[in-house]
Amino acid sequence: MSSVTGRIKEIKQPYGGYIRPSQFEEIIYNDGKVLGEENVHASVIGMAVDYLTRFMMGATIDEAFKISKKGYEFRVLKGGKNIQKKDKKKNIDIDSLLKHISGLDNESITAACKAVTYDVWYRNPMAAIFAKGAEETNPDKSTINNIRIMVERSIAFWGKYGPITVDGFDFEPNGYTETVDTGDGDYLTKDTMWDFKVSRQKPTSKHTLQLLMYWIMGQHSGKEEFKSIKKLGFFNPRRNTVYIFPVELISEKTIRTIEDEVICYKRSLCNRITITNNYLSHKDLTRWLRWRRRPHDHSPIGQQGRDLGGAAQCKLPTSGIKPQEHRKSPVLFCLLACELGPLA
User: Fold this and answer.
1) What is d(CA 306, CA 26) in angstroms, rounded to the nearest whole number?
2) E-assigned strands of 218-262?
3) d(CA 102, CA 61)
4) Sign of the CA dihedral 289, 293, 296, 297?
5) Is 220 or 326 the better-scoring residue by pLDDT?
6) Collapsing DSSP states into helix, strand and coil, what is residue 26?
7) pTM exceeds 0.85, yes or no
8) pLDDT at 309 over 90
9) Torsion of CA 186, 149, 108, 64, to 10 degrees
């Protein structure tokens, strides 16, 4: 079991990636501002920019920093109440830090940087032991100014490409598999799925695969908000650049490969099918057929759901079925479907 990003680390993509970063349209904005050096880890800056942007655009402080709060709660749960008492004396407990966030002034940005250090306790508790904590995280003037500029750029970006329809999304109830069982995305607008990056580099093939997996998982999730998505996009407030790619350009072959070999929907389904005495239950057969014929309103996924050729790959029994059960055996029905081809 892996997260989306964890699974990507295990995958060897074709040369250039399943979607080449160069295929994204690049739109550069120039506000005349130049960013300086930074003394805080890039991941802390990215989260601070993200959460402060949400806060400045109307989210409550608890909503904007909800992962930080969850992380701190987990830290206290593991470390005990004594840790919380020590943090309160130093004014670095999560509640004290969030009370100091009111805008984009120096004090607010410093408190935000300290608060987001607790995220790691929720996202990756093992790494939290070695990560710099709130007490050791002290952004200098240059770092604070960079964060302020990137938040302002993010707000300007949403003025052009918003409004936001979904702020933070997951893929329940049907988007996850036994192979990829966690992962969540940033934003949806009416027709675009957006991911924010604050790296100094342009998007890589790992980034484009991440967004592609999000889109495919969204189509499988069963949630209405993903049905209208026509484009995938990145915004990098550090580079002040937008990257956009229309999903209609994704080939059917690429989608099927991601579904079957990366996210592994087929494997996850087959692991849930039970065959007893060479007889596939009606419930399991129905589940399998629905998956293979899964309807989608968009192209190109909707063109591929009717293929029954994967029955053999589900390792259904090809022998041992008693002759008298031929008429009633769904297993035989599946095997015949393989021979006869797609359903009409």
Assistant:
1) 36
2) 231-236, 241-246
3) 9
4) negative
5) 220
6) strand
7) no
8) no
9) -10
